[in-house]
Automatic annotation (TrEMBL):
An example Gene Ontology CC term for this record: plasma membrane
InterPro entries hit by this protein: Hemerythrin-like (IPR012312)
Signal peptide: none
Hemerythrin-like domain span: 5-138
Protein name as annotated: Hemerythrin-like domain-containing protein
Pfam families, sorted: Hemerythrin (PF01814)
Amino acid sequence: MPAHITKWKTEHANYRKLLDLLETRTELFARGEQPDYELMSDVVYYLTQYPDRFHHPREDVAFGTLLAYDPSARDVVDELAGQHRQIEASGATLAADLAAAAAGTMMSRATIIDDVCRYVAFLRDHMDKEEREIFPRLGAALQKKDWFLVDSAIHLSADPLFGDTVQARFRGIQRQIADQAGCGCADLTEKACCLE
């Protein structure tokens, strides 16, 4: 399996941890507990700033490259590229709703809960479809030169949460993930959690 596919699967696993955290916080909120809008906003901010700006565009380049080798992949490539745009739009809506709620705007619990549930379910289904239907085709078709072009097309920025150094804004998320997993990394301040 090419290193790029392995990396993308690892990134998907990290995104699932964030979706689990978002879902857990939303379940508490649905039971009437005080929402942690800051934590939820930070999770959504990360998902709209890192995957939407770096992960998905790199996948789109690889998917487009695949079509030269496997034109029969056109339908799934078009569907997944369209889903990337939907994920970005629904993430922006969710981020705006959470920011408004945190600022004190009157908003029903049901609106936020529905937004989170839709976003989480859609992103999970999307990643599952990529891993099931397109990653094997990419692994079989793309050559070293193709992966070089994927790397060259989108400048990659360091991951601010799951990279070597966790940005200050994301340390709370890291601690929450570590707490949920019971991995013992909850007190780290500079290094990334061992869960990566």
